[in-house]
Amino acid sequence: MRSHIMRALVAAGAVAGLLATGAAARADEDPRVEQYRQALAALKQLAAPPACDQVPEPGRWLDAGTPDAGSDNVVISAHRGALTLAPENTLKSYEYAFAYGVDLVEVDVQQTRDGRFVAMHDSTVDRTTDGTGAVADLTYAEIRALNAADYEPWKGGAYDGSKVASLEEILALARRVGGGLELDIKGSVTEEGQLAALVGRYGLIEESIFNSADPRVLVAAPAARLIYNRDAWEPTFLIYEIGEVFKVFGSRLDEYTPESVVAAHDACAIVMPHAYDAGPDQEVAQFQLARSIGADGVQTNQPALIVAAAGEAVRSRLTVRHHGDICLVNARNGLGFPGKTVSLSKGRKSASLTTGYAGCVALPAKHWRGAVATFAGDGAVHPSRTRV
């Protein structure tokens, strides 16, 4: 088995090297096709995906005609959590994303010197913390001692002092709210089998996605869903073959066509490209374009906008804490919504408050006791009200 796995890794490595060369040959003559097939065959023997009852339509891989309809329930993955609401890859960022009811949070997984898994995009801690050095050269304790909000616009604010999130913390959060993780496995990770086993211990294999072609993931968890990052060169017949192993397709939206989406769907795979590559002002338009060609969802930097655009607003609840804070939270999972306006009214008096950390804000004075607090709702969150 070990030599078989190594051959698969070599084949996958050869494919990765070829990706940068461009596509000069006709699709059926491209040497990359055979390289992919060799790597896929090795992975396929290890995978145990759900049965696929879709009847392939190869003719539509060349001309889709009317594009497929994507999943009725839009699949939304929050890239690094809700990174516009809290520092990226921190537990609060993931909490805010799950407050909006997303299916998945994207976690950049790094491995420390002593073998623990933490959430950080960069290979070094320099950009987002008050420390320096490569994640792989630091221990878990050293990384957890860092301030994960030591960069603009978070430095000096309510999130200053946040810790780098451990993978266990994020897994526990996802399990509690019924969500999953999109695991973007970075170069410091040397134990992908152990990573998959950890996800399995939290019961989140089927809910999560692994951005990996490492066979050790499937050895540890045969039912794991792998995500394939599409490139523009792959012919649609190969997309279908890839989809027999990789059950999720990601990467840039401009690399997809209705035909490639049909081919992925015919293999019972889902398509969820990035919505954020064209910039923050274009995320909703990119989401709508993705859906128009049949995509099942997107990966987003702004989950609130995409939840609203998808028509999947979540229920809210206003609660009053004993020390005088009023909090706007998701009615199902209790996670807060920052940056929302809550109106107070009592007799002829009225006031407007803006929620902050954890979706809470302090009442301005005791004389507001007995007032009615109202959140009017927006496209992503339904209205709610309570008496203070």
Written description of the protein model:
This protein is an alpha/beta fold and 388 residues long. The protein has three domains: 44 residues, no CATH class; 235 residues, TIM Barrel; 72 residues. Helix content is 27%, strand content 19%. The protein has eleven helices and 16 strands. Strands 1, 2, 3, 4, 5, 6, 7, 8 and 9 form a nine-stranded mixed beta sheet that branches. It has a four-stranded antiparallel beta sheet with strand order 13-12-15-16, with no helix packed on it. Helix 6 links the parallel strand 4 and strand 5. Helix 1 runs antiparallel to helix 2. It is globular. The N and C termini lie far apart (64 Å).
Mean pLDDT: 92
* CATH homologous superfamily (4th level) name of the largest domain: Phosphatidylinositol (PI) phosphodiesterase
| Low-pLDDT windows of residues | 1-25
CATH overall fold name of the largest domain: TIM Barrel
Largest sheet: 9 strands, mixed
Determine Rg (CA atoms, Å): 23 Å
Summarize the amount of helix as a percent range.
25-40%
Assign an overall shape.
Answer: globular
- Count of folded domains: 3
Helical element count? 11
Helix and strand composition category: alpha/beta
Beta-strand level of the residues, as a percent range?
Answer: 15-25%
Along the chain, the helix and strand elements come as HHEHEEHHEHEHEHEHEHEHEEEEEEE
End-to-end CA span: 64 Å
CATH architecture title of the largest domain: Alpha-Beta Barrel
- The number of E-state strands comes to 16
Q: Mind telling me the CATH class of the largest domain?
A: Alpha Beta
